[in-house]
Amino acid sequence: MTSGRVPIAVLGACSALVLLVVVAFAVGRFPVSASDLAGILWARLTGAEHGLDPTIETVVVQIRGPRVAAALLIGAALAAAGAAYQNMFRNPLVSPDILGVSAGAAVGAVLGIFLSLNVIMIQSLAFAFGLGAVGLVYVTANAVRGHDPLLVLVLAGVVVGSLLGACVALMKYLADPYNQLPAITFWLLGSLASASPEDVWSTLPLMLVGLVPMWLLRWRINLLSLDDEEARALGVETGRIRLIVIAAATLMTSAAVAISGVIGWIGLVIPHFARLLVGPDFSRLLPTSILLGAGFLLGVDTLARTVARIEIPLGVLTAFVGTPLFLWQLATARRGWQ
Amino acid sequence: MRLEARGLDFGYRGKRVGSDLSIAVEAGEVLCLLGPNGSGKTTLFKTLLGLLPAQGGAVLIDGVELKARARDEVARMVSYVPQAHAAFFPFTVEEVVLMGRTAHLGLFSSPSRRDREAALAAISRMQIGHLAGSIYTRISGGERQLTLIARALAQDARVIVMDEPTANLDFGNQVRVLQHIQSLAQSGIGVLLSTHDPDHAFICAHRVAMLHEGHLARLGAPAATVTSDSLREIYGVEVAVVRVALGDGVERPVCIPGGALPGGQS
Question: Could you tell me if A253 and A101 are in contact, meaning their C-beta atoms sit under 8 angstroms apart?
C-alpha cells in the first residue's frame, strides 16, 4: 500500500461525509437549505439572532440534529467493532453478530418491551444482555480445550446466538399482539426515528470508552490476525489483548444496538471496503472504517426517511443496500483478504 | 545466550509426547533436529518457546526459567520461524517483517522510524528488498519463508527456532535458506532447526540431535551422529552414508537411500 493513497482516500471520505451531513439536514418533509443550516449553526455558536422561522430551528436542533448525530455515531461504532472483530477472528466474513452481541442485546430489549419497562430500562437491558452473551460465549469457549481456540469461540457464538434467537421468538409468541408485538418487531428491524439528544449524549461516552483502547492497541491488533502461537512468539500476550479488544468492540456494539435496534451488515461490509481502500494495517483501517461506517449509515437513514411515504426500517434497507455491495465486492476483487 | 531444556517433559495435558529431554543451543551454533513424523519435533519447539507449558523439567534461557520471564522478554531473546503459511490479510512484506519489532515496543506504541529501518535492514539481509512492497499473501512459498526469517531477524533475538524451514521449498530455495542459516550462525546467532533431510545437517549444522519417539536418541557432531546405524534406528530404512570429495581436499558425507534394499540390491 503506497502511503500517497491514504490521505487521498481519507480526504475523499471526509468531504463525502460533510456533504452527506448537509444533505441529511436539507431533505425531508420540511426542507432546510444549506444557508439556513449555516445560519442556525452560526447563531448557536455565537448566540446571535438568526432571524429565521423558529420551526426551522426546531427541525434542525430537536429532530434532525439528534438523528444525524445518532446515525453517524452508530455507523461509526458498528464499523469500528466490525473491523476489530474481523482482524481478531482472522476472517473478513465476521461481524459484530458473531459473538452473539446483537442477539444478546436484542433479547434484552425485547424482554424490556415484554415487561413493559420504560425506555431507559429497555436500553440498559439490551446493553447488559449484549455483554452477558459475549461473556457466555467466552466462558463456553474457554471450557472447551484441545481445539483451535478461535474456531471454538466462533462456534460458541453461533450456538449461543441461536439460543438467544429462540428466546426472542418465544417472547414474540407470548407478547400481547396489539401493543407489544408491533413494538418488538419495530425495534428488531432497527430505526433511528426516535433518537433523542439524550440518546446521543448517553451513548457518546460509551463509544469513546470502547474506541480508546482499540486505538491505543492498534499495532498489537494487527498481530492478533496472525496465528495465535505465532503472535505469542512475537511477544504479544494474545489472551489479554483479545479480551480487552472484545470487551471494547462489544461495548460499542451494544451501546449502538441499544438506541437503534438491530442494524446488520455495517460491521461486515464497511471494514471490508475500508481494507480495500487502505490495506489491513489497523492504524489506517480503524479511522477509515469509522468514516465510511458513519457516512454509510447516515446515507441509508436519509434514504429510509425520504424515499417512501412511510419510513423504511433501517435493518431492511442496510440489508438491501449491503447485500448487492458485498456480492459485487466478492465477485470483482478478492484482494481484500486472500 | 543459551536456550536450554533440562530434563524436559513435553506434550499436552493428558498426552505426553516426549520425556526427560536435555538439550541446549548456544548463540553462534546451528543445531539440527532430525526425527520421523510424529516424533515430537514441533511440540518440543513450542515448549522451548514457551508456547506450550512444560509438563515436567524446565526450559531455561541463560539459566533463568522461561516461565519466570514475561512474554515480550522471551521474544527479545528467542524468535520463532514457523513453517511458511498462508496469511489471512494482505499485509505487505515490510509490514510482516515490522511485526517482528513488536517485542521491542511499548504496549500502546506503533513502530517508529528506527523500527522501520531495522525491518528494512533485515529484509535486505535476506536479499528480498525487491519484495518489500509486495503483498505477503501473493508471493511464493520460498519468498514467504525468507520473509519470516527476516521477521525473526528484525526481532533481534540471539537464538532463532525454525520449524522445518526447508519444507515445501524447491531445491534452489532450500539451498538458499540453508546458506542464510550458515551466515546467521557466523554473525553470532544460534539456530535450532528441524528438517526431514539428513543431508541438511551435513550442509549447515554444527551439531545434530536425533529425536525418536519423544526421546533424544543421538546428539553430537553431524558426521559422527548421522550414520547408517542411527538412520536405520530412527527411520527404519537402509541408508548408505558416503563421503564425497568436494575438491580442494574438502569432503562431505552424503546420504544415499537404498544402500541395501529389501529386494536385495546392494
Answer: yes
User: At residue A80, does pLDDT exceed 50?
Assistant: yes
Identify how many contiguous H helices and E strands chain A contains and give both numbers.
Answer: 15, 0
Q: Are A84 and A241 in contact (CB under 8 A)?
A: no
Distance of residue A84 Cα from the nearest chain B Cα, in angstroms: 13
**Residue B251, SS3?**
strand
Confidence band of B127 (pLDDT split at 50, 70, 90)? very high
Element (H, E) at B10: strand B2-12
For B48, which residue in chain A has the nearest alpha carbon? Answer: A233
**B157 CB-near residues (< 8 Å, 6+ apart):** B75, B76, B77, B78, B79, B189
Q: Tell me if chain A has a CB within 8 Å of the CB of B253.
A: no
Amino acid at A187: W
Give the single-character DSSP code of B86: -
**A111 close to A125: Cβ distance less than 8 angstroms:** yes
| Chain B contact for A336 (CB, 8 A cutoff) | yes
Using alpha carbons only, how large is chain B's radius of gyration in Å? Answer: 19
Here the ipTM equals 0.91
Residue B141 identity: G
The percentage of residues in chain A with a pLDDT greater than 70, rounded to a whole number, is: 94
pTM of the entire predicted model: 0.88
Which chain B residues contact residue A234 at CB under 8 A?
75, 79-80, 99-100, 102-103, 151, 155
Q: What is the per-residue pLDDT for A337? A: 46
Least Cα separation, residue B39 to chain A (angstroms) = 19
Judge: A222–B91 Cβ closer than 8 Å, yes or no: yes
pLDDT of residue A338: 44
A98-129 per-position pLDDT tens digit: 778 888 988 988 898 888 887 778 778 887 89
Q: If you ran DSSP here, which 8-state letter would residue B135 be given?
A: B
Strand-strand pairing, B190-195 and B159-162: parallel
Q: Would you state the pLDDT for residue A48?
A: 77
The candidate with the shortest Cα–Cα distance to B94, out of B111, B127, B119, is B119
Q: Measuring CA to CA, which residue among B68, B61, B17 is closest to residue B38?
A: B17
- A59: cell is 427541525
Share of chain A above pLDDT 90, in %: 28
